[in-house]
Structures are given as structure tokens and as C-alpha cells.
Amino acid sequence: MNYQQQHALPTAAEPTKKLKLVATSIIKGIIQSTNSETVELPTGGPKFVLKKVVKPKVASNKASQQTVRDRRKRLERDIQDISSPTKDDAEAATFQLAALLKGKTNQELKEMMIEYGLLKIRIPSGHELALKTQMGWSWDELRKLKRWLCAYKIHMQCEAKTRQAKKDILQGCNIQKEMLPFFFKEKDQETKKDETITKLAPMVSIPDLQDHITHTLDELDRVDLLTWDDAIPNDEIWVKIGGDGGGGTTKFYYQILNTEKCNSRRNSTVFCAYAADESLPNLHIALDRFVNQVNGLLTATWRDKKIVPWLCADYLLICKLLGLQGASATYPCMLCHAKRGKLDEAEEDEQRSLESIHTDFERVEAKAFTVEAKQQNHSVSHQPFFKIPLEQVCIPGLHVSLGLWNKFYSLLENDVGKLGNLIVDKLAEEDENSEEEKNQVWQTCQGNQGVTEAS
């Protein structure tokens, strides 16, 4: 019998108080002699491990943050100790922690994560800017999405950092930002009439339009996105110059038409935008710097291919860019000299051209831009902005189609209204006739009843 077996206590024996004091003194001395929280004792078999565990005086949900952090670190060490024989096996500790969480139901896990703020998903930095750009959202629309995602504990980077990231990206681009005096219409509080005032408004633009178009063509060619179909000759590059106003701003853009989805938003590059309407004075302030650049596209080439510029906008803006008064003028058509109400009577020799517009403008200018002079010279009011031929000006097909369908719908609505009135009148007549017949039948029945009673 060895020493351990000789001095071992019976299994069912209850340790006496004296024995407990002796054991406490021995264990305390062993623990104080080492810096570790655990002490391993030989047993002849598996090691006997003593671990120092301080009994808490305060519950964790009522303790200080420092105490909670200390207890968390202690718990992490305990999980590491019981998960693997080695102390640096992080995978085993993670597996054991996952097994501990699996012991909870899904509902318990969800309530615990929500109550203690564990259910937090943060979208990586920069991704919200990519989302805003891809979706074409405004900052206000992005804020609405952020608020909606926050309800599901999904968080994005703050707007200030997102704007700063956008600034950092744009620093490498040659974009000109300035405040210019634009014209605005405001209602006078006393006279209640519109008056034109001048205010400073922001404008951003690309200084070198031709260089930017060349760079875009190089990038499209690098990723093999340039295409040529039956409409575009193989030795030409078609570039559409467009513009539109709305939402308090006016934008001008270009699109490379030698692509599969040439009218898509991703294929549109804004080269000028300002915070004012598309009135003629404002157009001159914004576009005069681009006149020579756009006209230069008429003779420009890219890799021995001729660049062909096209002009596209709504009809109001096209008329302003071509020097015409507009759709309500005496001569409303941008392609011919037919008068309003007689467009179907236009002759072939009455076709407009840039040369005829310049000639008409010279006559109007000689007569001091009077209303009569504009009416007598085919409703030309100013010089065209660009030298793009009228054959390369796109008629706004969408607006024309909407106008035609709106006209047809109005005619149909009027005819249906008239038909409805006829139906109502006819039903009213039938109701009157049926009422008279009912009265006659009633009177007949009353008469027969009187005869029967008399007999």
C-alpha cells in the first residue's frame, strides 16, 4: 500500500472542519507561490487541477463595466482551458462557444442579442457610397434607407465620412466648382408679379470636354464595350449631347452611342450642372464655355474614326439651343418653315438649316429684335449655340409620343363622356315612360277594385 492509499479518506466520509482548514491552508500556500490562477497536482493518473475562482459579491448585470470586462476575460480563459489540451487552440475554443450557444433556442438567442445589443451588422466603409452611385439616389434617399436598416440593427457609415470619401475620390478628377450669378424668377410680395433677380448659385463642370470624351472612349475600348451595329458605320463614333432641367437644377451630359445600352444611366456622363432653370440667359452663362469644344467635335477623330456629335433634349430646350422661339411660336417646327396649324402643308423648299437660321437672325438683329421681326423671320430669336447640323438633332420621340397619346386619350375621353350623356338621357326617358305606365296600371287596379266593392 502506497502513501496516497494509506492516508486517503474513505469515499463516503465527510471531511471534518479541521481537515478543511488544513486543506485550505495548503492550497492557499500553493496558489500564492505561483502567478498562475491554476495549479496542477499529480494523482498518478489524470492531473488534478486547482483553479482560483473568486466568488462575486455583485451580479454582472449590476457590476461596473471594468468588472464585467475582467469576468469576460476570465471566462474566455476558462473556455480555452476546457476546450483543448493546448492553450493556443482558438478553433477549439470557438467550437466550444458555438456549442454553448446552440443550447439556446432561436427565440432565446434573438431576444438575448436584441436586449444586449449583440445583433449589429455594419456595412463596410465605402459600400454605401457605391450603393448610392449605382442606384442614382440622392442623399435624402440614402438617409431614408439608413433609418429603415437601423430598425433591423444594420448600420452604415455616417454621412460625413461618406461625403469625405466622395471628396477624396473627386480630388483626382479635373472638376471645376464655382459660384456664378444666375437669373431667377420670384414673385414680388407687393405687386404679386414675377420679377427677375440675380443670385449666386453653384455650378460644376468638366473643363476639357473633348479630353474627357477621349478618355471615356479609351476606357470603353479597354474593357471591350464599344460596338458597331447596322446604323453606325465602322469608321464613326457617335456621341450624343443632351440636357434636361428639373428638380431645381439643369444638367448637360454626353453618351457614347457605340455601346449596347447607350441610353442607360451608367452610360451618361454629366459634364455641366448648375442650380437654376434652363432660361436663355442661364444657358449662356453655363454653355458659352463649351461652344468651341462641342463645335470641335465636328472635326475631331479618335483612333482614325470620325466623331459624330448628336444633339438631344426636350423640344423646349432644343428650340433654345437652335435659336428658335418654341413650340407656341408662329413657326414652331425646328425642321421647316411651316406656320402653326399648317404643318402638313410644308414644301420641300421650306426646310430649315443652320444657314437659314443664321440668315433669319441677321434680319431680326437688323430690326432690333422686335416681335414683328421675329414673326416675319420664321420665329428666330437668337443665334444657335452649336454648329451641329439639324440632320444630327434628335426629335424627342418620347415627348412626341406622350403628346400624341394624350391627345388621343382626351378625344376618347370626350367621346365617351358624350356617349355617357346620351345613355343617361335615354335611361331617363325610359324611366319616365315606365313611371307613367305604372300610374296607369295603378289607376286601373283602383278602378276595378271600386267596381268590385260596389257590386
Detailed description of the structure:
With 455 residues, the chain is of the alpha/beta class. It is built from 15 helices and 12 strands. Strands 5, 6, 7, 8, 9, 10, 11 and 12 form an 8-stranded mixed beta sheet that branches. The protein has a two-stranded antiparallel ribbon with strand order 1-2. Helix 3 (65-83) packs across helix 4. The N and C termini lie far apart (141 Å). The relative contact order is 0.04. The model is unreliable at 451-455 (pLDDT under 50).
- Tell me, rounded to a whole number, the average pLDDT: 81
How many extended strands? 12
Q: Low-confidence parts lasting 5 or more residues at pLDDT below 50? A: 451-455
Task: Tell me roughly what share of residues is in helical segments.
Answer: 40-55%
Which labels suit this protein?
455 residues; eight-stranded mixed sheet; two-stranded antiparallel sheet
Short description:
The chain has 455 residues and is an alpha/beta fold.
